[in-house]
Design goal:
Length: 331
């Protein structure tokens, strides 16, 4: 059991350094938990040794092979200076134990972001979005921002000094999310570079949920082990940003049967019947019975079809046996 705990959260992943952050900045870190056991892993409680950090359970019950998280929020609005905390996570299933996580960081009292992060919220894929923030600094009369760097090409930022007087300076920051931002949840940090030789950089958190024009639930389908031609029922929900119709659903490696409604809607509940075809083994595939395919869905919403990964393992006749299926996922 003790060895398995190292697979829940690896020892090297049990600590996080926030570095130097501004006061009132939205600063948090997710500790990801993986369940290596054959039964559910249940997180009963979390507690922190210091009020500078507030922990919370994002996923209390994690199924076998699944993942969950404990969120640690650095309370930058209430504390300043060097701070650290130990987070104790109590697990009561499959066996009682406790894990300890640590966080630390330096909260600057001379810099305040308003609001505390560049939070874009939900953004339609393929569109540009902007967020404006204010930075207030109190201290050196000659303090200034010299540059803002971004870790990714689809996020950029500009800055403009709007006020300076008696050791106080204010900047207007404009953060831009570009049209080519990939779909899904995005979280990263811009880095503000300053002429302060003691603390030269200040991070600014950026978050966004980029919504694709069309998405499916589930995002991928795994049928498990099936016989060729054996029908398997599967429910799927398709959602779009606007009303649409489905024009075609097909798959090269399986027969798809479904009744389509030609009334435009923003969401469709589809009752699919999927019958895997007897796909010939490929000599180059080390696991020829495990089939990785795609369900191709054409709609009036977008020119490119939506492709939903489909995986299954064929139970062949003639003693060829079966193999485990590897599930593809869409991020």
């Amino acid at each position: 059991f003790a060895q398995s705990l190292n697979q829940v959260v690896a020892p090297e992943s049990r600590s996080h350094d926030f570095g130097v952050v501004a006061r009132a900045a939205n600063t948090e870190h997710r500790f990801v938990f993986t369940n290596p056991f054959n039964s559910d892993l249940h997180i009963r409680s979390v507690r922190a040794s210091c009020g500078c950090t507030t922990p919370s359970i994002e996923t209390d019950t994690i199924p076998p092979g699944g993942q969950g998280a404990v969120l640690a929020r650095f309370n930058t609005g209430s504390f300043t200076g060097q701070r650290s905390a130990t987070i104790t996570v109590t697990i009561d299933r499959p066996q009682f134990t406790e894990l300890q996580l640590t966080v630390k960081g330096y909260i600057r009292s001379d810099i305040v972001f308003t609001p505390g992060e560049a939070a874009f919220g939900a953004v339609p894929e393929g569109t540009q979005a902007n967020r404006e923030l204010k930075l207030n600094y109190a201290g050196r009369q000659d303090w200034q921002i010299t540059d803002i760097s971004s870790p990714v090409g689809f996020v950029s930022a500009t800055f403009e000094e709007v006020e300076r007087a008696a050791g106080r300076v204010s900047y207007k920051l404009n953060v831009q999310l570009k049209e080519d931002t990939p779909a899904g949840f995005f979280q990263n940090q811009l880095v503000l570079h300053t002429n302060d030789r003691r603390l030269t950089t200040v991070p600014l958190r950026v978050t966004a949920e980029v919504e694709p024009a069309l998405q499916s639930a589930p995002a991928n389908i795994a049928l498990g082990t099936v016989k060729p031609g054996e029908p398997v029922a599967q429910r799927m929900v398709l959602k779009g940003r606007e009303a649409f119709t489905i024009t075609e659903i097909n798959c090269e490696q399986a027969e798809i049967r479904v009744e389509l409604d030609d009334t435009p809607k923003r969401a469709f509940i589809l009752n699919l019947v999927i019958a895997p075809k007897n796909v010939l083994p490929n000599a180059d595939n080390p696991n020829p019975n495990a089939v990785q395919a795609e369900i191709v869905i054409k709609t009036t919403l977008q020119p490119a079809p939506l492709r939903v990964p489909l995986t299954f393992t064929l139970e062949r006749q003639g003693g060829q046996g079966t193999a485990e299926v590897a599930v593809n996922t869409i991020e």
